[in-house]
């Protein structure tokens, strides 16, 4: 909570150079940027914006700012402005330069360490944010609106070009930072509009009453503008997260209380899905790895629901207590704490470590949630019924899993019959190709390097796990075979150390069916093998779309643009090759659908069985469009898609778990309307669509 008395004091008199405390210098940042922003990829690039915006959020949480704006400008420039007090510009007694220059050139210099006019609650605990942005920017300009004057100072790669000086008069207060990321540091310099939009919307939810504006002025002919303001805070956030789901409790639970200078906010709602979405924040910084606030919340949630269910006779005497897994199915929850001295793990603040926060959250949430259940008996009964159904499914899944895995490789027994395993027993050098159809599986088995490459063909499309519980999943043969082949077990019993292959590669056809199978597999891995995805073990193979042949020269193109470039290099007249086969193999049976793909119904193609409708001419470029992996003979498949020296693969990772969760719910969930809207919105962006 904000102390009204301190808010009424003159901002200038309490927030000055004395509030800035120095801990160390700036030199290491350019040498090891990954230590401060995580990486020099797109993730690190966007982290620069987060750091500057967080400074404005700190001013808002302290009660001195009501508006923050972020503008993407031409030539890679980004402008972030707030209407707070403005960074002090008077001379700092230790550094002998302005407080502004001290903040921008010294690590661990800021208002987060001192007493008095600094910050009581701050997201930027380490105080390295804006100085790191300065160090990693080719150009940075700071404009300070304070005490009736406009102060300005410019920097080149962290070096001040002049002293901070007044350049005009003003009636407003605040800070504007304009910067351009350094191309010498970052691998890419293109900002993702959607990513920034989602992040700033999230910050608006977490800080009630603040206005956050975002504008994109990179294109001359078009400017995009968004303004976010949420009076309901995280309660409104919960409503947004569940907008595509049928909910169990229409009344969203919400509590906000303060204890020992720590403010705790919790909001939750149950939906009819099977997945949990719980977000934890400390001082508006998301903690993807949770922490003590998450532990306190989960402990109180399980205990409170069990106590209520027992008291209301919703659980029979002989029935087991609900487990944490049972009460979190279909849960959407947000825990937000604001504290004076947060202890994070690392600069990226992935996990909160303050021990006392567990007790605070457990006490505040437990008491309030119990009151909520008693005041809303019908909604409480719906929540308990949902949890009891989850418990029944868990017991059924445990029985099914035990039955399957007793017979499986996890107990040292046989691997799936369709798995062509590799000879190596070293997981770090082994890789598993999950291949669409027996035809492609046959080519992959013949073309692979048997020493370290294993092949698991899939028969048709696997079950959509977004709409199924674990017991139904394990009844699906393809999923069962995959679980046994991986060796890790699944869900809460997942053990990454037992992964038999350190590269799991999805290899499907370059058509609509192949894309659908790939999406089904990605849903399975994201929902039930999450640590494996986060660890970087999952890949998607990129087979070529075209083979271009002129005389004895053969080249492969992975995109239409690459195809056109190769045609220009080769020169000559182009002709398409249309392939047919003399015989068809047995139609594969679909395990979850009666349909089967054309590629699955086509036998393995070899060179002697292929007919070409065009006569080859030495001056002509023969172009073959690969519709399926089964059209390639083993040698071609090895050369283009499986040879580590020449293949192209995409590594799957999760940059934003919340956004990923939402996309999977839209695309793979049971509600048709959001999916239809998504397809209509993004249809024009689809390339190489075969209908």
Question: Could you give a short description of this structure?
Answer:
This protein folds into three domains: 4-228, Heat Shock Protein 90 (2-Layer Sandwich); 234-398, Ribosomal Protein S5, domain 2, CATH 3.30.230; 412-656, Rossmann fold (3-Layer(aba) Sandwich).
- Quaternary organisation: single chain
Low-confidence stretches: 1-7, 112-116, 408-413, 579-617
Count of helical regions: 23
Question: What is the beta-strand fraction?
Answer: 15-25%
Mean pLDDT: 84
How many beta strands in the DSSP annotation? 25
Rg estimate, integer Å: 29 Å
Largest sheet: 9 strands, mixed
Shape, principal axes of CA atoms:
globular
- CATH fold title of the largest domain: Rossmann fold
The rounded distance between the terminal residues' Cα atoms is: 58 Å
Plain-language structure description:
The protein is an alpha+beta fold. The chain folds into 3 domains: 4-228, 2-Layer Sandwich (Heat Shock Protein 90); 234-398, 2-Layer Sandwich (Ribosomal Protein S5, domain 2); 412-656, Rossmann fold (3-Layer(aba) Sandwich), CATH 3.40.50.670. It is built from 23 helices and 25 strands. Strands 1, 2, 3, 4, 5, 6, 7, 8 and 9 form a 9-stranded mixed beta sheet that branches. Strand 10 (253-259) and strand 11 (262-270) form a beta hairpin. Helix 5 (42-61) runs antiparallel to helix 7, helix 5 (42-61) runs parallel beside helix 8 and helix 14 crosses helix 21 (634-642). The model is unreliable at 1-7, 112-116, 408-413 and 579-617 (pLDDT under 50).
């Amino acid at each position: 909570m904000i102390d009204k008395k301190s808010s009424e004091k003159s901002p200038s008199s309490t927030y000055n150079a004395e509030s800035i405390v120095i801990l160390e210098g700036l030199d290491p940042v350019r040498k090891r940027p990954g230590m401060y922003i995580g990486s020099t990829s797109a993730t690190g690039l966007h982290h620069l914006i987060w750091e500057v915006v967080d400074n404005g959020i700190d001013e808002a949480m302290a009660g001195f700012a009501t508006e923050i704006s972020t503008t993407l400008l031409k030539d890679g420039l980004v402008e972030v402005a707030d209407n707070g007090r403005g960074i002090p510009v008077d001379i700092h007694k230790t550094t002998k330069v302005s407080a502004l220059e001290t903040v921008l050139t010294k690590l661990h210099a800021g208002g987060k360490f001192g007493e008095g006019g600094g910050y009581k609650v701050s997201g930027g605990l380490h105080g390295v944010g804006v100085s790191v942005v300065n160090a990693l920017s080719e150009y940075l300009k700071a404009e300070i609106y304070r005490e009736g004057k406009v102060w300005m100072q410019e920097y080149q790669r962290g070096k001040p070009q002049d002293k901070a000086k007044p350049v005009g008069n003003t009636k407003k207060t605040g800070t504007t930072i304009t910067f351009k990321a350094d191309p010498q540091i970052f691998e890419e310099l293109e900002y993702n509009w959607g990513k920034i939009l989602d992040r700033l919307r999230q910050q608006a939810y977490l800080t009630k009453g603040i206005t956050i504006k975002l504008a994109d002025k990179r294109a001359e002919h078009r400017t995009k503008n968004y303004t976010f303001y949420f009076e309901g805070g995280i309660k409104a956030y919960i409503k947004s997260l569940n907008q595509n789901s049928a909910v169990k409790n229409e009344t969203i639970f919400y509590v906000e209380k303060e204890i020992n200078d720590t403010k705790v906010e919790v909001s939750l709602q149950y939906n009819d899905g099977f997945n949990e979405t719980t977000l934890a924040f400390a001082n508006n910084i998301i903690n993807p790895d949770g922490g003590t606030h998450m532990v306190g919340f989960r402990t109180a949630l399980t205990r409170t629901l069990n106590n209520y269910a027992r008291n209301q006779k919703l659980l029979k005497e002989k029935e087991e207590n609900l487990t944490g897994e049972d009460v979190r199915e279909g849960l959407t929850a947000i825990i937000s704490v604001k504290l004076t001295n947060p202890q994070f793990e690392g600069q990226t603040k992935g996990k909160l470590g303050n021990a006392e926060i567990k007790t605070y959250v457990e006490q505040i949430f437990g008491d309030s949630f119990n009151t909520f259940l008693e005041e809303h008996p019908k909604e409480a009964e719906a929540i308990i019924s949902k949890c009891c159904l989850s418990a029944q499914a868990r017991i059924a899944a445990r029985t099914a899993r035990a039955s399957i895995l007793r017979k499986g490789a996890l107990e040292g027994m046989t691997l799936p019959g369709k798995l062509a395993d590799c000879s190596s027993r070293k997981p770090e050098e082994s890789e598993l190709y999950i291949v669409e159809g027996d035809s492609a599986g046959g080519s992959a088995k013949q073309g692979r390097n048997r020493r370290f490459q294993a092949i698991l063909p899939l028969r048709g499309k696997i079950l959509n796990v977004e709409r199924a519980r674990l017991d139904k999943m394990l009844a699906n043969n393809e999923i069962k075979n995959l679980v046994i082949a991986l060796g890790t077990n699944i869900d809460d019993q997942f053990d990454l150390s037992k992964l038999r292959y350190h590269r799991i590669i999805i290899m499907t056809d370059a058509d609509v069916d192949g894309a659908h199978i790939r999406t089904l597999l990605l849903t399975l891995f994201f929902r039930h093998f999450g640590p494996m995805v986060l660890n970087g073990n999952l890949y998607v193979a990129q087979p070529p779309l075209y083979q271009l042949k002129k005389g004895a020269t053969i080249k492969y193109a992975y995109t239409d643009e690459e195809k056109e470039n190769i045609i220009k290099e080769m020169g000559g007249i182009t002709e398409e090759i249309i392939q047919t086969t003399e015989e068809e193999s047995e139609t594969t049976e679909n395990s979850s659908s009666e349909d089967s793909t054309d590629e699955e119904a086509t036998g393995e193609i070899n060179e002697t069985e292929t007919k070409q409708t065009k006569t080859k001419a030495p001056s002509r470029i023969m172009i073959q469009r690969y519709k399926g992996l089964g059209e390639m003979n083993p040698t071609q498949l090895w050369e283009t898609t499986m040879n580590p020296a020449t293949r192209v693969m995409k590594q799957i990772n999760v940059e934003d778990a919340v956004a990923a969760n939402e996309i999977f719910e839209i695309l793979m969930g049971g509600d048709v309307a959001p999916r239809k809207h998504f397809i209509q919105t993004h249809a024009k962006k689809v390339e190489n669509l075969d209908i």
